[in-house]
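User: For a teaching handout, I'd like to show students what a predicted protein-ligand complex looks like in token form. I'll give you the sequence and the SMILES for flavin mononucleotide. Please answer with just the structure.
Assistant: Understood, here is the input followed by the structure.
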Amino acid sequence: MPNAEGKPLRIGPVVVDPPILQAPMAGFTNYAYRQIVREFGGTGLQATEMVNAKGFLHIQAEDEQSYPDRLWGVREEDRPLAVQIWDNDPATLAEVGAKLAHEFRVSVVDINFGCPVKQVTEKAHSGSYLLRYPDRVGAIVERVVQACFPVPVTAKIRLGCTRDTVNAHEVAQVVEQAGASALTVHGRTAQDFFKGTADWEQISAIKPYLRKIPLIGNGDLATPQAVVAALTRYAVDGVMIARAALAKPWLFRQAAALLRGEDPPADLLLEEERELLLHHYELVVRRFGPEKGTVLMRKFACCYAQGRRGAREFRTSVSRISTPSEFHRAVRESFPTSV
Ligand SMILES: Cc1cc2nc3c(=O)[nH]c(=O)nc-3n(C[C@H](O)[C@H](O)[C@H](O)COP(=O)(O)O)c2cc1C
């Protein structure tokens, strides 16, 4: 059954309302980005970037008070919030999951079984590599669920490793039986990377294999209309948005409005976007300082410019900035005020 009315979904005790989730994106969905999305509203659950469990324990072994940069803001930030972890060792994942659940008090611990990047698959035998080994996926989920209780654990997968070995339905059953509280499926295989289009029929086909936990569909949702269409046409309980919301962090708010049957608020005006960009910059610089913060901001600024007139010139100039004054100049030139 689709969720055309946009009913909230439940991940264990966590109510996800609206059933529109902000996806984890390494290098992007840090505290500053999440904060901006939260200010616009419209998402029922936000997620951090994926955090490597072994790396986490290594940092802590050196200094108990230190945590991976990717956990910036996680302790203080509003809830609900999911932290995503990755590795291939059940015990390591369970130890880190327990810390996140009980010390950091996050709302959801999500496990990555979808990352197709070689460093994660071939080198660390993690992420989408594990889709070939449903038993291992089951062992990981079971261990992490036990360690995190009562905080719910979820899994994020792709359809399979290759087009010839699509096995998401099998993995879905294993994940549910191991005690996970929700499953997110990106409608591509690892082999696809980001090529082609996400296969929502295949996502939908997983639903009958799940008896009680919600299914969250993900892939290529770039407009409020696409979000509502996905919830109306396909057997998913919720949807997750990644890339399109880098250019438009207000996309969740627009989609949520349309789902309620209202006219979605308009896209931001150039001047509003300029203010947003400066706000985002301030958050990043406050944490990383002007030097590192400015360099880090390059990629976010490039995302904001997408689809704007003069985006290419802006991207070229912003990709070279390294000081606050260069950043402000690039913004002034490409996002002029009308006065
Ligand atoms: C730059 C980038 C980083 C990503 N990092 C993660 C990650 O850390 N964990 C994860 O599960 N998926 C990650 N993904 C995948 C997205 O969460 C999502 O599944 C994929 O982009 C498809 O959704 P979309 O079409 O809405 O972008 C990443 C995607 C991109 C583009």
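For the handout, you might add this sentence: The pocket of flavin mononucleotide is lined by residues 23-28, 49-50, 84, 112, 114-115, 156, 186, 218-221, 241-244 (CB under 6 Å).
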